[in-house]
Amino acid sequence: MVENDVRHLINRKLEHVEVTVFGDVSRKTYTMLEDVTLVHQAFPGISLEEVNTKAKFLGFDVNAPIMVTGMTGGTPELGKFNGTIASVVEELGLVMGVGSERIVIENPSSEESFRIVRRNAPTSPLVANVGMPQISRGYGLRELEKIVSVIEANALAVHLNVAQEVFQPEGETDYQEEVLGKLKDLSSQMGIPIILKETGCGLSMETVRKFSSYGFHNFDVSGQGGTSWIAVEKIRGERRGNWKSKSASLFSSWGIPTAASVIETKWADPASFVVGSGGVRNGLDIAKAIALGADIGGFALPVLEASLEGRDAVKQFLSEVEFQVKVAMLMSGSRDVSSLKKAPIVILGSLKDWMESRGITFSTYDKVRKGGY
Amino acid sequence: MVENDVRHLINRKLEHVEVTVFGDVSRKTYTMLEDVTLVHQAFPGISLEEVNTKAKFLGFDVNAPIMVTGMTGGTPELGKFNGTIASVVEELGLVMGVGSERIVIENPSSEESFRIVRRNAPTSPLVANVGMPQISRGYGLRELEKIVSVIEANALAVHLNVAQEVFQPEGETDYQEEVLGKLKDLSSQMGIPIILKETGCGLSMETVRKFSSYGFHNFDVSGQGGTSWIAVEKIRGERRGNWKSKSASLFSSWGIPTAASVIETKWADPASFVVGSGGVRNGLDIAKAIALGADIGGFALPVLEASLEGRDAVKQFLSEVEFQVKVAMLMSGSRDVSSLKKAPIVILGSLKDWMESRGITFSTYDKVRKGGY
Amino acid sequence: MVENDVRHLINRKLEHVEVTVFGDVSRKTYTMLEDVTLVHQAFPGISLEEVNTKAKFLGFDVNAPIMVTGMTGGTPELGKFNGTIASVVEELGLVMGVGSERIVIENPSSEESFRIVRRNAPTSPLVANVGMPQISRGYGLRELEKIVSVIEANALAVHLNVAQEVFQPEGETDYQEEVLGKLKDLSSQMGIPIILKETGCGLSMETVRKFSSYGFHNFDVSGQGGTSWIAVEKIRGERRGNWKSKSASLFSSWGIPTAASVIETKWADPASFVVGSGGVRNGLDIAKAIALGADIGGFALPVLEASLEGRDAVKQFLSEVEFQVKVAMLMSGSRDVSSLKKAPIVILGSLKDWMESRGITFSTYDKVRKGGY
Amino acid sequence: MVENDVRHLINRKLEHVEVTVFGDVSRKTYTMLEDVTLVHQAFPGISLEEVNTKAKFLGFDVNAPIMVTGMTGGTPELGKFNGTIASVVEELGLVMGVGSERIVIENPSSEESFRIVRRNAPTSPLVANVGMPQISRGYGLRELEKIVSVIEANALAVHLNVAQEVFQPEGETDYQEEVLGKLKDLSSQMGIPIILKETGCGLSMETVRKFSSYGFHNFDVSGQGGTSWIAVEKIRGERRGNWKSKSASLFSSWGIPTAASVIETKWADPASFVVGSGGVRNGLDIAKAIALGADIGGFALPVLEASLEGRDAVKQFLSEVEFQVKVAMLMSGSRDVSSLKKAPIVILGSLKDWMESRGITFSTYDKVRKGGY
């Protein structure tokens, strides 16, 4: 890749952070977690101290079902944020992912901005990150091993971002089915789990079934309701006079709301491991996502925002989220995360209608989410 | 308890009244009584004079199904409000409860603020009040008998307030199941009925089933939609810089709306005695709560507010509520409270969806509320 | 009745008109006709000229299914409005009712304000009007024959207004069942049809079943959504410092919305004759009411308002309504009123939920409204 | 036709364009396409380049399922817009219809404003246009052949506009059933397909069944949600003091929303060819209409508006729409238009209730729209 391209990639990453944090790119739509109520239990049968938030992340023990999902890396500035977040994740015993590492392959000097994550979080489960289009376009074992090794990752997230790419002038929309076989082979050779991950538009039951048929069973739904990458591209497009930006605006509410996507994913592959993310902003959202069928909840933007204020802000934010998860567990009568998955819930409004349109009855799904499939 | 702790408890009580009456602690959410319609009967078959509002409260006769639920007591000022309310309750033949009497045990000089209630309401059914955490933490027969005797109570309400305690710096969230057995034993020894009572978040069918299995069958649902104690704690927390106050804000709409809670309670224990409270503000709310399955309706805040204006205001308010109950009974064609329980109702909107999510069909519930279980 | 009482009655009538026209007494709620859609038929198979709006009103032929329902009379001023309206009703071939004629019995000098109606509408079907409480309190054949003869009425409406009376200081809420037997006897003796008529709160299926069991089968639903007589009494009460006015405000949205009331009435007595009124304001509302099961649509307030501007305004208003009925018939593919009763309709929103709560399925009701019972 | 009448017709056409573009005639209501969600497929299995938008229009190949529906023509000015649009339609390989050609019969000098369309679009499928009332009132083979030959049309649209005519002072509302037989005969003689087309109020299942029974199977639904011709007539009426304009206002939300109309049409005649139009404004609307059962999407107003700005604006607008269709196809996992017809969809809100009222279950309709009838 010529120098110009690398500079371009770096600038794009910086602009993504800037637009995400300061631009108006929060969804007009919503996560449909608003349509979910955890039923209050006035007599939980336990005290707050007895609530056990410990969870499993792909076999690793974590103190709470909270994941900082991948968002950044690539330049010294962005590396600093990564480092700050990593040290808090280590202290609190959570999980962390990094932003797309394509830049590591294309510009070795960017490595440090990722390496700092493992250095500051020596024992935490960490998740490397690469885009599906890069694998379509030629990344092989060498590149993926490089990407994984930079953070000594415990898992590799392969992100799908067709909705973002399609509105980029430089967009790559290669999603031919062959790449799934190739990825499966690479995954066997690398020996670490692969997480298939959307980037704000959610996974559908059809997509999950296709992935399952190739032997993939770990998913990060990243549903609609959080950062709209389409809106990010719209703002970038307007700055450059890209004619696609008007269309990007039209599609800014495209996607599957997070709550619906968790349900579709679990419905399609009941034994799968699911990260509930996309517009998740606090511990109550996380608890709802888990009660709906996720194994862990994830977010990136609120942590990135806190990291601009420094380590204390990140620690305070994540501690509050952990407290909120614990409170939601206590008041829904859930002694541990596995009880939370079975906690009584109420589903109203559009999410109820969504399920009906998709042929998912509440009573059948209630068994699925509780593990009775 | 050292003097400092007592002063602390007294100040907390005063602050609770102040924040409740003057702070913005009414729910952003609603009681779902808004989703209930009593069907108008153009030809009631009776005149207003013939409508009989007499009701039973745990075996005692009352002139109308109206209860002033427990809210205050503990200091001379708060005792004055208690006394004013009690004398009107006696005059009108209603039911009254007092606020938490923990302070009676910890500070004997506070007794007078409760004793005045029985003095001013010598023949009314009165309900003593203690928190479940106090029983968890050691209250025995001696303490409960003291609490009951101070107002020569006809029943003892044991309140559950996990949602409030969890956000207090000093919060006690002990809700281990053992306490239910202990409370059952104490109740047999005392020989007066126990009412299990929420404090603004409502009782669920799971919670009611647990209580029933221990032999408790009297409930005060105190559902979501009225005073949010979580919001009260949020305001108190902000004043003190308590880091939990941000989380308290997140949970301020947590809970089971009053109408849903009445239905869940009756569904779980069809033969139970149910006080419909939580955001109840007038006689139409009370009539709806009874038609949904409650035996009596209750409220505290509007009476407390009237008591700040004096005895006349309390009497006028409660007389209007009684008139409103009577009008709602007349126009729904209900000759007496037992007819009101069978009056035709319509359930629309979110309450309809809530029931569906909880597996409660309207037609089956219609039989349950009418006593046909 | 002493002179003072008569003056009182006259003043009340004048104040009713004044408050109704100038006060804010339109419902906060709605008629639920908003939830009804007549399905457009792009190819009606007829021309506008061929649409036949002729209808039957209790055996009488009328040019369109439009009734000016009873609202006023009693003083020379109010008689003038009655006369204006009557002459237009005669010209257009519609139906007209008058306001309560109790004043005719109590003050013979008020007769002229009613007699003018028959004088100006010599061939139109006219409906006399008396309150059910008057019959409870003693009116017999003599009084009813007087009331009927004053306008040589073709039918007698007996109005039910418990919701209004209950908030009047002078209110009469006698609705004991005996009066129905008495009324049935009187009706046999008089030999003209009786219409049982609500006054803004609608008829329920339970009420209609009771009436049917006594042999009454003509109904004017007068549902919720139009003039709220409760709100009228609230304003009158505030002027007089009546303590009931606060409660009147609470009940101002009490009642059965017009669309729901038409359905309940037809459901309870499929062969009955039904006037669809209450918040009906134009010809589209009338067409919807008929498609829902009514035989004719009725309104009072918009005609009264037009009459303040004079005869031309009344004629223009009623001609437009007739045109609107005709347009709605054409575009729903209804050649005549009997086709309109079978025209395809769509029911959305709260009315759909209302029917569900009342155990009325759309498909079964669809047969009932089409006459297939 | 006398000269005055022709001038009148010309002026009416000019005023229609003026009011449509500058007046407030967009619907208060909506298309119900808002209630439809195409389910996002994160891994489409194809790239954007592989998406094939080619479609069939009555046997003709087009590059994308986009039709500029008929709106204008008749004067030199309006002919200029027609010419501009036609040349872009030719370049992009789309379909185009023209406005009502009645004026061609009545004023031969208007021909040129239509002829320019075929001249500028020599190879595109073009659709001639005549009103059903003209055929009722006497147009025979000679007139229709003239209308078709002026643009060497590939199909003839016969438009139904009873809702517009009924509010015109000069309105013609002849829709007697005989005309359908006559039209069928004419169509056999002419040998080109007939499209029956609404003009903003939508086709119902009853209407479509009637047409099918006469052997017509090509429909342009033109549902409610776009330009309200009733609102156009209301504005024209007010300018002229036409008393019908108040009634026009009342009916301005009359009609079948576009999404509901596509479903009703396909439900009534599953093998029919359907143009989804009415409030369609972009490529996402078109993709939804096709997923609901249409074969092609159509619009007129946004193209007319662009044509006021010139050829570049028209080309840019239509290119963007084509891109949007392609993006919606990619992200719903639809390789071609026939896959798009089977793409997973979610139906929420009023459209769901509409279907229920009309006896159409989602699961049965899902088979119909996918061709499994």
UniProtKB/TrEMBL annotation, chains A, B, C, D:
Highest taxon above the source species: Archaea
Location (main, coarse): cytoplasm
Pfam families linked to this entry: FMN_dh
Residues binding FMN: T69, G70, M71, T72, S100, N129, K197, S222, T227, G279, V280, R281, A300, L301
PANTHER family: ISOPENTENYL-DIPHOSPHATE DELTA-ISOMERASE (PTHR43665)
Role description: Involved in the biosynthesis of isoprenoids. Catalyzes the 1,3-allylic rearrangement of the homoallylic substrate isopentenyl (IPP) to its allylic isomer, dimethylallyl diphosphate (DMAPP).
The name this protein goes by in its record: Isopentenyl-diphosphate delta-isomerase
Species the sequence originates in: Sulfuracidifex tepidarius
